[in-house]
Amino acid sequence: MNKIRNIKNTYYLINILYAMGIAVFGSTLYLYMETLGYNFSQINIFLAVFWVVGFFTEIPSGIIADSFGRKNTLIASCIVRSLGLFFLFIDWGNITFLILGAIFTSIGESLKSGTVDSWMIDSIQVVDEKYQFEKVFSFNQIVGTTFSLLSGYFGAQILGVMDLSYPVLAGVIILLITIIVVLFFMKEPRNEKATSEHKGVGAAFSSLKKTTGKGFTLFRTDKTFFLICISFLPLSLIVTGPFNQWQLFFQEGRESINTGYIYIGLSLFGMFGAFLSSKVSALSENKIYILIASTLINTAAVVVCVLIENYILAICLFFVHVTITATEEVIRFTFLNQNINKENRATLLSFFNTLEAGATILALLVNGLFSDLYGIGNAWLIMSAISIVVSIPVYLIVNNVLKKHLTVKEQQGQVAKS
C-alpha cells in the first residue's frame, strides 16, 4: 500500500505543479499581450493557432507517450510548453513570437493530455489490478482546483502588479520545477504491454481521416444528429468572447489589476454551474426547452453585463453567464449522447468535437475582427445576437423532429404489441 500511496502522491504533486504553471499567468495573459501592442484580432489569432495545432497534435501525442514512455513525454511537455511561454516572455510585439508561443504551448498541452493519468493508472494496476480510481480523480480535481485558484490569484495580484510579464516567467519556472519532480519521483511501470501495441503516427492520421469521412456520411444521413450539431455550434459565438476577453473587458480603464479576484470567482462559479446541471436538467423531460431557456438567459446576462454601468453588477452578471454556460455544457453533452446511434457513438462524438473546434476557431477570428472594429463589449453583443438568431429556430426544429420520432416509435410499439 505504501507503493500505491507514493504513486498517488506523485500524481497529485505533478498535476498540482503543472496546473499552477498554467494558472499563474491565466488571469493576466491577455492583458500582457495587450501591453505588447497586439490588437484584439492578433490576440485571437494566438488562440486560433493554439486550437488548430492542438487538434492535429492531440492524436499523435498518445502514440508518442506509448512509444517513448509517459515520463519522457511529460518531460517533453514541460520543456516544449516552457519554450512557448519563454517566446511570449521575450516578445516585444513581434507576431512571429506570438505564433511560436501558441504553437509550442499547444504542443506541450497535447503531450501532457492524458499522460499523467495513464501513468498513474498503469502504475497502480501493476500493484493492484482491481484498484478503484474514483476517489483519486475526485481528490485530484479538488486539490488541483484549489492550488490553481491560489496560483492565479498570486500571478495577477502580486506578480502582475509588479510587471505583467512576471506571471509568464513564473509559469516557465514552475514547469521547470515540475521536470525535476518528474525526474526524481515518477517511475515507469514495468508492464509495458501497451508500448508494443501502439500504432504509428501515420496510422493515427489515417484513422482520423476515416473517422471524419464516416462522420460526414452520418452527418448527411442522420437528420436528427445534423440538427442537434447545428443547434449546439452557435454557443461558441456567445462563449468565445467573454471566456477569452474577460480580462481585457473588466480591466479596461483601470490602473489597479483586479483580474486575480475575478479569476477566483470564475473558477468557483464554473464548479457551481457543473453542480447545478443535474438539478436544472431534472426541471423538464424536454431538454430542448431547458437549452432554449438557458441560451436566452445566458445571452441576456452577457447583454446586460455589457450595457450596465455598475462595475460590480457587471462582474456578477458575468458570473451568472459562467454558471449557466457550465450547466448547459453538461446538459448538452448528456443530451447529445442520448440522441445518437449507439453503434456509431465514438465516431459521431469525435466528429461533433471536430465541428465544435472548427466553430470555436471561426468564432475567435470573427470576434477578434468585431472587437477591433467596434470594441470588445459591442463584439459580445453582435456575437450573442447572431447566436440567438441561429440557435433558437434550429432548437425548435430539433424539438419537432424528436417529437415525430417519438410518435413513430410509440406507434411501432403499439403495432408490435397487437
List the SSEs and their pairings.
Blueprint: H1 2-26, H2 29-35, H3 40-68, H4 70-89, H5 95-112, H6 115-127, H7 134-162, H8 166-185, H9 193-196, H10 201-221, H11 223-232, H12 235-251, H13 259-281, H14 287-307, H15 311-338, H16 345-374, H17 376-417
The chain-level structural class is mainly alpha
Count of β-strands: 0
What's the average pLDDT? 85
- Please outline the major beta sheet: none
| Overall helicity | over 70%
CATH names the topology of the largest domain as Growth Hormone, Chain: A
What's the number of helices?
Answer: 17
- Give the overall shape: globular
- N-to-C SSE series? HHHHHHHHHHHHHHHHH
Distance between the terminal alpha carbons, to the nearest Å?
A: 60 Å
Classify the beta-strand content into a percent band: under 5%
Instruction: Assign the CATH superfamily of the largest domain.
Output: MFS general substrate transporter like domains
CATH architecture of the largest domain: Up-down Bundle
Would you give an account of this structure?
This protein has 418 residues and is mainly α. The chain folds into 2 domains: 2-186, Up-down Bundle (Growth Hormone, Chain: A), CATH 1.20.1250.20; 215-411, Up-down Bundle (Growth Hormone, Chain: A). Helices cover 85% and strands 0% of the residues. Helix 10 (201-221) crosses helix 16 and helix 12 (235-251) runs antiparallel to helix 17 (376-417). The chain is globular. Mean pLDDT is 85; it is low at 192-198.
